[in-house]
Amino acid sequence: MENKSVKNLKSLIAGNIWMAAILIGLIAIVIVAAAFLFLQNDEDITSVYLNNAGQCPEVSLKLTNRATGDVITIKAKAGQRASANVEPNTIYDYVLDTNSEPDENGMRCYDIDQGTISNIPKGRSVTVNVPSVQATPDLRTPSPEPTEETTPAS
Q: What CA–CA distances, in Å, run from 52 to 59, 103, 127, 137, 150?
């Protein structure tokens, strides 16, 4: 016959193994859920992209949250793309300004556009494309004066 204390010890060990297995399973579930939520977090970001596809040296997009008055400014140099996170399902008034200082070649753009970006769903984005416009010479930079040749009077 087996001693009662040995039998109790065996059932205690068997019970603890099951408890350890259940605990390990619960920890694994928590880790998987946390990883899923972490990866899902990127899908919750709402963004506005500014794509400067033109030759304007630098463009800026000023977004004003109509409800709070908060202002976000995004800037992108020629050929670049920049972004900012915004509140989902919100109305933003925007000013797209291509007017910038001249680049190293003395070229610049002069256009300003205004409008509204509204109700971007959570996890989505909107891209504002700057049209592919050609920069023009800076009007503030004087052109060289033509030289006038004088001929002696005969």
A: 7, 15, 10, 19, 49
Distance CA 42, CA 52 (A): 24
Amino acid, single-letter form, for residue 119? N
Cα-based torsion angle of the residue sequence 59, 114, 130, 45 in order, rounded to the nearest 10 degrees? 90
Q: What is the pLDDT of residues 30-74, one digit of tens each?
A: 777 766 666 555 568 999 999 998 778 889 999 999 999 999 999
Tell me whether residue 15 is exposed, middle or buried, using C-beta atoms within 10 angstroms of its C-beta: 0 to 12, 13 to 18, 19 or more: exposed
33 φ/ψ angles, rounded to the nearest 5 degrees: -65, -40
Cα radius of gyration rounded to whole Å, the chain: 33
